[in-house]
Automatic annotation (TrEMBL):
Protein name from the UniProt record: Methylase involved in ubiquinone/menaquinone biosynthesis
InterPro entries: Methyltransf_11 (IPR013216), SAM-dependent_MTases_sf (IPR029063)
UniProt-recorded Gene Ontology molecular function terms: S-adenosylmethionine-dependent methyltransferase activity
Example of a GO biological process term: methylation
Source species: Thiocystis violascens (strain ATCC 17096 / DSM 198 / 6111)
A Pfam family reported for this protein in Swiss-Prot or TrEMBL: Methyltransf_11
């Protein structure tokens, strides 16, 4: 088993406050699509963003993560129980889970082992859903050009190799499911310059950039971003491409 690499421990506090929200309609649809709403396993929960949304629809949510630093910043919810454990060894009972969710994390897993764990804990009629959002776009062309350059050029050497799977919308990840159609969900928001900067600071690649070059690298980024943005309280529409894969595991393929 590959050793767990906690890419987000250095930015866990920022991650908890700066990451975008998932579409509320996604959680409503998942609840409607599930045959029962007793128990959800939110795997690699991070700060619990998906877990607390699921808690509004399901009786219990077991939210697990291998990172103790992420769990320190997890959001409380009466129906959510947080546990520190790996994706590949959940500690859950056999055939006990109605829904398994993985938000923005499937690309980090030991997939053969995780798929076996999914088959073990999921009920025969249970549902498995994984989603990921890619690189954001900003509706101001000048701001967007600068942002894309920073993402693709300045940070190019600092992204973990697994980030490739996010960029390709999980097209090349094994996903042994009987896939079912999913409605179109929009992931968009109106952000100020400060919110965009906070989001950038939550990236693992940004943390590695600062380790290599010092904080001056981000001082330069925010100064240039502010210059292009203008009024720091002005909001721009930001949009993320959202990949959602939902289905039932195939018994003979995991």
């Amino acid at each position: 088993m590959p050793q767990f690499q906690d890419h987000f421990a250095p930015v866990a506090a920022t991650y908890a406050s700066a990451r975008p929200s998932y579409p509320p309609l996604l959680f409503a649809w998942l609840a409607k699509t599930c045959s029962a709403r007793d128990l959800v396993w939110d795997c690699a929960t991070g700060n619990g963003q998906a877990a607390v949304a699921l808690g509004d629809w399901f009786t219990r949510v077991i939210a697990t993560d291998a990172s103790s630093e992420q769990l320190v910043h997890a959001q409380p919810h009466d129906r959510v129980i947080y546990r520190r454990t790996s994706a590949e060894d959940s500690g859950l009972r056999d055939a006990s889970v109605d829904l398994i969710t993985v938000a923005q994390a499937l690309h980090w897993f030991d997939l053969p082992r995780f798929h076996r764990e999914v088959r073990r804990v999921l009920k025969p009629n249970g549902l498995f859903a994984a989603w990921s959002y890619g690189r954001l776009r900003i509706d101001d062309p000048a701001v967007d050009r600068f942002f894309q350059s920073f993402y693709s050029e300045t940070l190019s050497a600092y992204w973990p190799a697994e980030r490739h799977h996010v960029e390709t919308g999980y097209r090349d990840l094994a996903f042994p499911l009987r896939l079912q159609p999913v409605p179109t969900f929009t992931m968009t928001d109106g952000w100020t310059c400060g919110q965009v900067f906070g989001y950038v600071r939550s990236w693992s690649a940004t943390a590695k950039l600062c380790e290599a070059r010092g904080e001056v690298a981000m001082d330069s980024f925010i100064a240039r971003l502010l210059q292009i943005w203008g009024d720091p309280e002005r909001t721009c529409v930001v949009t993320w491409p959202l990949t959602i894969l939902v289905g039932h595991p195939l018994d003979d393929s995991i």
